[in-house]
Design a protein that fits this description.
Number of strands: 50
Low-confidence stretches: 733-805, 858-880, 1034-1077
Keywords: 4Fe-4S, FAD, Flavoprotein, FMN, Iron, Iron-sulfur, Metal-binding, Molybdenum, NADP, Nitrate assimilation, Oxidoreductase
InterPro entries: Asp_de-COase-like_dom_sf, CT_Nitrate-R-NapA-like, CysJ-like_FAD-binding, FAD-bd_FR_type, Flavdoxin-like, Flavodoxin/NO_synth, Flavoprot_Pyr_Nucl_cyt_Rdtase, Flavoprotein-like_sf
Cofactor: Mo-bis(molybdopterin guanine dinucleotide); FAD; FMN; [4Fe-4S] cluster
Shape: elongated
Largest sheet: 7 strands, mixed
Radius of gyration: 39 Å
Pfam families: FAD_binding_1, Flavodoxin_1, Molybdop_Fe4S4, Molybdopterin, Molydop_binding, NAD_binding_1
Oligomer: single chain
Organism: Streptomyces catenulae
Length: 1453
């Protein structure tokens, strides 16, 4: 009986506050403890006792439990050793010490203003307080800014100018008493939904709702009067309403006289804003203006609500002043149901403003510009008088990053915010962070757009993992109580700040043990002038429930809903000079609120001929800020899954844009490319885009790359709500997914779903065309008997062949096939089969033969039964069949695959059919128990298995690997003898098979790159050993004609025809000329002509990268290829190198030497065409050491000196050895120790579908100063670079069947090709375009510098603009202080990449194997962890599965 699984133990619920917007809803967390004692949040619900929400929660707030389980947490500190390198884990204490040391060093070297802090409205009150204390009190920097500068700065400055202090004068209680609501520049239904519901309760009770917005939002849909205003004209509207209120007699003269000043100065502004003028400016109907004024003027109580629509303006402060003017004029302030009420965007932005965390602010609504406030704060902080700098506070966030970019600010500490994504004209932020000497970030999640620029990353505890106070829009303090333990080394923000401060040397001022202790200190920042008072509040009191300030005493009321009452509650009663005691006292010098005459100003940027549209930006209901939280919550992400740009139908028609089309939104600063959402919610001439999506979700999604950063001169808040843009339809993969509509996936990538495979496709091909309409040579249609459509369709489904398209044939292939099909009618009966020697590539021939078999091969009708008669004599019992031979191969470049195929052909020619199987297509456990195993493998990297043999090798090494007792086997290992671990994987494979009990049939053979003799000898030995074993077993073997079983195992390739002698036939030295090959090969190359030689790299590159074009139309034999193949170039040694060798050795150039596989040739010919006089080999060193007796060379030849020998040989060539150690030997002796001149393989950068006779290459030419600065050259690359036009080049194609673009037209393709690794992907893209494939294509390209290393830029950008290349992400590592590589871009766009992989994308990598390939592989696994929710083992298994499915392909070298 199984014991029941222990159930989590429920713990008492934890009351806390929502972490999202400024409504500040109370939340109750259902917490449980697991068997290990670790607590988790199981469920989130609304707190019915909380005054902000009474139990209601929006969708974001209700997903608190999912947020706590979100992936991608930063659980430990990271430090980047130097810019451009990946961050490495360090102890938290180490990271804190490093941060403190570097911040202090910058301040001491360059002054305090060289250090900046950029903080957040999502920090707790305690953390905000400590950040400001450290910045202004101890670092003494002017630069502490916050993301509130982007949201509420204009509201704050407007409040101060009009009312004397920041913050709304009323509370949420007013929503239950208002008769009219004016909602302007706020979409409450989407952005403050719980407060919106409170408002709608009052509207349903009879209150009127006026909504002012340039876009018909969800809030506007509920309005009694919707004023769809022209963007940027709010100030004109507000002044116009005041004009109508005054003209209609709706003002309150008594209130104006008693409680305000400045009314007389309003006369001019009022006169300038009559209804007709305002109607013209705003685009509103004059009648609607009058109706709005009448409703406001006749209301007993009216409330205004606003947020970013008014604040994010270059005159946002004036907007706030003008709105408050309406309240002052009507006396609708500081009484129930009345007042201006700004809606804060972040959970504690209100508290941050009270803590003074931007500009000259000091805690308690004080200012460093006021001497009394500085003195109060210095006493609070224990500072000497004069420590706090007068007026310390810089001119805003935008200017801070500008000065950072100029080098004035050299260090930045960014806490809990993502400015790279959120700041307008974000390029300024990027330039600033790149220029800074030191950037430290403090965040909950490991990956944000800003984290990429961090030198140190400090892990912070998240909501519900720490304790602290949050203040909402109505001045309500709620204690955020800890429910669970932070993961890893994540610390509360306040603790990190205090630890850094102590490490900087400020121990005595930052010795806090708890957030409660910090709050106790900050609550002393009482301000009798503004009424700010937390002296009656403590963590202990807040554990019982929220408290609204002012709160002077611990036993005072929890709610204080109206400010500025002169009743002695918040401030001592004030009496005027005449002895009167007014009902209200505002914290201005006179105690009166102030009217400010604010004439209309247009937006900073207006449409013109070049940028004719006006862009408005905003938020969506189920996403928040820059998606660091909500995008990780599936429920929310599904509701608002992707970006878009809303365009009016009239504008869409003129642009030729439909729903889902990709539209470029371009301004004078940058561009975004977003799916169109055609909707009349926006005005003609306007467009709207949410700002949430940025680099992590795709390139060109950042709306803040487009917005401008002109700022309000008072608040320094940027005016992001009105920006002139141009809209242009662009061709991308979004076209294919039109039906999906906007936001189909992160990054707005919509992918057309491939239609179900149709049986008619094969039949259509027989009728002269393919299923997609491409022509093929006509065939004998009358002879075709197609399978019934349902049967063909069912078979396609069973065998998963529906996505394999007919091949696109090159011209020679088509010409041959046309003749073949034309001659079929005169041929013998039966199913036609292509002969072995044709110009068709093997893959194309395989498809054609399959089609021919399907069209012509039919079962013969049964013979009529014979007449009754005597039974025939039985045949003698057949002898037992020969043992099955299975040839398993693993190959990185195709050499081992070719060798395996030749081995199968050779055995078949000897009457012993063999099966071919890629190692990773099988497992050791699935190998036939009675088969003979022949394993052909190359070695990759440092002795590793090739990619397509790695899983087989891992399974063979697993503890549970099956025994192979008695199984006969042999290994053919291919390698490069210039590597120390020559044939290392083959050796290890051989040893492991022996360890598992397998019987070695013949010893392992090891082949160098161009020496096939060992392979021929190995195959002969294998065949003879098989014959011997079978004779010993009494088996008769197979007949010479090859009769016998030819069954093919699942996944195995059928054995090829034995008509080509290959390894089994006599070699070239036997005196018998081999049969002419059907195509160019390594041993029988074709001659191409060099017709193109173009320099790609620019000045200052440090590299010489060239594009070569080779013409094969005059070649002796065809040179067919496919996209993904490599071209082998057999170079000729430079004449000066040959001459230098001959001079150094004193040998006769005409002396005859024997070259294996060639015969006898003069030494000069051998050095030019067959041998390599530049490579240092151990044989060469041994000859020189024997002749000279040099102790250094003798030591280097010892087996244990491999590493030393490699170091010594670096930068040297064989010629340098001879210059240092001149020796004499015969020509034959030199020929015996020189390696063969090997062909160089270059990825082909073209597709035969473009022109099958032209082959393009992208090559980095090797030239360097060798030992003692002697000029040296790469033999093949320099041979091509220095050859003249039309020069002959010996070439052959190295097939790469493992590296192909997807056959399925709809499959997404991701390509990673830095440097010259981009070459094959040019061919992939050309191939997919020529075939009409609709699947999206994404390329990651990297080099050192954009200006000099963006190879094929024009072609790539043209492919992107044409829609073939959907995304192009670049990484130019040296263009910024912090090096950025393709693997960094992969991580940056991990979320989008993961969605592509989920959609079945193939992931292809080409380039350097030594570092890049491993780094990219690691990044791919990181993406699987961060965005797939996998652990490290799961990610490794996922990547292995991609490789097994042939979706992860590498061509690395």
């Amino acid at each position: 009986m199984t014991a029941p699984e222990p159930q989590p133990r429920r713990l008492p619920p934890v009351r806390t506050v929502c972490s999202y917007c400024g409504v500040g809803c109370g939340v109750v967390l259902d917490v449980a403890a697991g068997p290990d004692g670790r607590r988790t949040v199981r469920r989130t619900s609304g707190d019915k006792a909380h005054p902000a929400n009474s139990g209601r929660l929006c969708a974001k707030g209700a997903t608190g439990a999912e947020l706590m389980a979100a992936p991608g947490r930063l659980t430990g500190a990271l430090r980047r050793p130097r810019r451009g390198e990946a961050p490495e884990p360090v102890a938290m204490e180490t990271a804190v010490a490093e941060t403190a040391r570097r911040l202090r060093a910058v301040a001491e070297a360059h002054g305090p203003d060289a250090v900046a802090l950029y903080v957040s409205g999502q920090l707790t009150l305690e953390a905000q307080y400590l950040a400001n204390k450290l910045a202004k009190g101890f670092l003494r920097t002017s630069w502490i800014e916050s993301n509130s500068r982007l949201c509420m700065a204009s509201a704050g400055s407007g409040y101060k100018l009009s009312l004397g202090a920041d913050g709304p004068p009323g509370s949420y209680d007013d929503f239950a008493h208002a008769d009219v609501f004016l909602v302007i520049g706020a979409n409450m239904a989407d952005c403050h939904p719980v407060l919106f519901l409170r408002m709608m309760e009052r509207v349903r009770a009879g209150a009127k709702l006026i909504v002012v917005d340039p876009r018909r939002t969800a809030t506007a849909a509920k309005a009694d009067l919707f004023l769809q205003i022209r963007p940027g004209t709010d100030l004109a509207l507000l002044n116009g309403l005041l004009h109508l209120l005054a003209a209609g007699g709706y003002t309150d003269p008594g209130f104006i006289t008693e409680h305000t000043e400045g009314w007389a100065a309003m006369e001019g502004v009022l006169a300038d804003h009559p209804p007709d003028t305002v109607a013209e400016l705003t685009g509103l109907a004059e009648a609607d203006l009058r109706r709005a004024a009448e409703w406001i003027g006749t209301a007993g109580a009216w409330l205004s609500c606003w947020t970013m629509g008014l604040n994010q303006s270059t005159h946002g402060t004036w907007n706030t002043n003008a709105l408050i003017n309406l309240h002052l004029a009507t006396g609708a302030i500081c009484r129930p149901g009345c007042g201006p009420f700004s809606l804060t965007g972040q959970a504690n932005a209100m508290g941050g403003r009270e803590m003074g965390y931007m500009g000259p602010g000091l805690p308690g609504q004080r200012s460093a510009e006021v001497a009394e406030d500085r003195a109060f704060t210095e006493e609070l902080w224990g500072l000497a008088p004069g420590t706090i700098r007068s007026g310390s506070g810089g001119p805003g966030t935008v200017e801070m990053f500008r000065r950072m970019a100029r080098g004035e600010i050299r260090a930045a500490w960014i806490l809990c915010t993502n400015p790279v994504a959120s700041v307008a004209h974000r390029r300024t932020v990027i330039e600033g962070l790149e220029a800074a000497e030191f950037v430290v970030t403090q965040d909950v999640f490991a990956t944000t757009e800003t984290q990429a620029y961090a030198d140190v990353q400090l892990p912070a505890a998240m909501w519900a993992e720490t304790e602290g106070v949050m203040v909402n829009s109505e001045r309500n303090l709620t204690l955020m109580q800890q429910a669970v333990t932070p993961p890893g080394d994540a610390w509360p923000d306040w603790r990190i700040i205090a630890a850094v401060a102590r490490a900087m040397g400020y121990e005595e001022a930052f010795t806090y043990d708890s957030a409660e202790e910090v709050f106790a200190e900050l609550s002393r920042a009482y301000n009798p002038r503004t009424g700010y008072d937390l002296r009656g509040v403590s963590h202990r009191r807040l554990r019982r429930g929220p408290v609204q300030w002012p709160s002077a005493a611990p036993d005072g009321p929890d709610r204080n809903p109206v400010r500025y009452l002169n009743d002695g509650t918040a401030t001592p009663p004030r009496v005027r000079a005449d002895g009167s005691r007014p009902r209200l006292w505002f914290p201005t010098p006179t105690g009166r609120a102030v009217f400010h005459a604010r004439p209309f100003l247009p937006a900073a940027e207006l449409p013109d001929d070049s940028y004719p549209f006006l862009l408005n930006t905003g938020r969506l209901p189920h996403q928040w800020h820059t998606l660091t939280k909500t995008a990780k919550i599936a429920r929310l992400d599904a509701l608002d899954p992707g970006p878009f740009v809303e365009i009016h139908p009239r504008d869409a028609a003129s642009l030729g844009v439909a729903d889902g089309d990709a539209v470029e939104v371009a301004s004078r600063r940058g561009r975004a490319v977003l799916p169109a959402k055609v909707d009349d919610r926006v005005r003609p001439g306007d467009c709207f885009a949410p700002f949430h999506w940025n680099d992590l979700f795709g390139e060109y999604l950042s709306v803040n790359a487009v917005t401008h950063d002109a700022v309000d001169p008072v608040s320094f808040q940027p005016g992001t709500k009105a920006c002139a843009v141009a809209l242009t339809k662009v061709a991308t993969a979004a076209e294919a997914g039109r039906g999906a509509g906007p936001g189909a996936a992160h990054g707005a990538r919509t992918v057309a779903t491939a239609p179900a495979p149709r049986a008619e496709a094969a039949v259509g091909a027989a009728r002269g065309g393919t299923a997609d309409g491409r022509a093929v040579a006509p065939g004998p249609v009358g002879a075709v008997a197609a399978a019934p459509a349902p049967l063909a369709a069912a078979a396609a489904e069973v065998f998963h062949t529906g996505g394999i398209a007919p091949p696109a044939l090159a011209e020679p292939e088509r010409r041959y096939l046309a003749g073949f099909l034309a001659g079929m009618g005169a041929g013998a009966p039966g199913a036609p089969v292509l002969p072995d020697r044709t110009p068709l590539t093997p893959d194309h021939a395989l498809w054609v033969n399959g089609w021919l078999a399907g069209a012509f091969s039919r079962t013969e009708p049964p013979e009529p039964e014979p007449a009754p008669g005597p039974e025939p004599e039985p045949e003698p019992e057949a002898a037992s069949a020969a043992r099955e031979v299975l040839v398993l191969w693993a190959s990185q470049t195709g050499n081992a695959e070719e060798a395996a195929a030749e081995a199968a052909r050779g055995l078949t020619a000897r009457g012993r059919p063999a099966r071919l199987l890629r190692m990773d297509d099988g497992t050791p456990a699935a190998l036939p128990s009675d088969a003979v195993l022949l394993l052909v493998t190359s070695t990759f990297g440092d002795g590793d298995a090739p990619d397509n043999g790695a899983r087989f090798w891992a399974a063979l090494n697993a503890p549970d690997a099956p025994r192979l007792d008695g199984t006969p086997y042999s290994v053919l290992a291919l390698g490069d003898s210039s590597y120390d671990d020559f044939c290392g994987h083959g050796r290890r494979l051989d040893d492991r098979l022996t360890a598992l009990g397998a019987h070695r049939l013949v010893p392992r053979a090891q082949c160098d790159a161009d020496d096939t003799d060992p392979a021929r000898g190995w195959l002969t030995a294998v065949a003879e050993a098989l014959d011997t074993e079978e004779r010993a077993d009494g088996a008769t073997g197979t007949e010479p004609d090859g009769a016998g079983s030819t069954e093919t195992a699942p996944g195995a390739e059928p054995a090829v025809s034995a008509s080509e002698p290959a390894l089994s036939g006599p070699g070239p030295r036997s005196g018998t000329a081999p049969a002419a090959p059907r195509t160019a090969t390594r041993h029988a190359p074709a001659t191409a002509r060099l017709t193109g030689n173009r320099l790609l790299s620019g000045p200052g590159s440090g590299k010489e990268v060239r594009a070569f074009t080779l013409d094969t139309r005059e070649a002796e034999v065809p040179v067919p290829y496919e996209a993904g193949d490599a071209l082998g170039v057999l170079p000729r040694q430079r004449p000066e190198v040959v001459a230098e060798w001959l001079a150094a050795t004193g040998t006769d150039p005409a002396a005859p030497v024997e070259v294996t596989g060639v015969g006898t040739v003069p030494l000069a010919t051998a050095l030019t065409d067959h041998l390599d006089p530049t490579r240092i080999t151990t044989d060469l060193l041994r000859l020189v050491a024997d002749r000279t007796g040099d102790p250094l060379l003798t030591r280097l030849l010892r087996p244990e000196a491999k590493a030393e020998r490699a170091t010594w040989a670096w930068g040297r060539q064989a010629l340098d050895v001879l210059a240092a150690y001149p020796v004499r030997a015969s020509a034959a002796e030199w020929a015996a120790v020189l390696p063969r001149l090997r062909p160089r393989l270059y990825s082909i950068a073209s597709s035969p579908l473009t022109d099958p006779r032209l082959i393009r290459l992208t090559v980095s030419v090797v030239r360097f100063g060798g030992h003692r600065d002697r000029p040296r050259h790469g033999v093949a690359s320099a041979h091509l670079a220095d050859a003249g036009p039309g020069a002959p080049v010996r070439v052959f194609v190295q097939r790469s069947p493992h590296f192909r673009p997807p056959a399925d037209p709809a499959t997404p393709l991701v390509m990673v090709g830095p440097g010259t690794g981009v070459a094959p992907f040019l061919g992939f893209l050309q191939d997919r375009r020529a075939r009409g494939h609709t699947g999206p294509n994404w390329l990651f390209f990297g080099e050192r510098h954009r200006a000099s290393g963006f190879h094929h830029r024009a072609e790539l950008e043209a492919l992107r603009d044409a829609g073939t290349l959907t995304r192009l992400d670049t990484a130019f590592s040296r263009d910024q202080p912090e090096k950025v590589y393709v693997q960094d871009r992969i991580r940056e766009h991990g979320a989008l990449l993961w969605s592509w992989l989920r959609d079945g994308a193939h992931f292809c990598v080409c380039g350097d194997a030594s570092r890049m390939a491993g780094d990219v592989d690691r990044a791919l696994r990181d993406v699987a962890v961060a965005h797939g929710g996998l652990d490290e083992d799961g990610a490794a298994a996922y990547v292995n599965r991609l490789a097994a499915e042939r979706r992860y392909l590498r061509d690395v070298y």
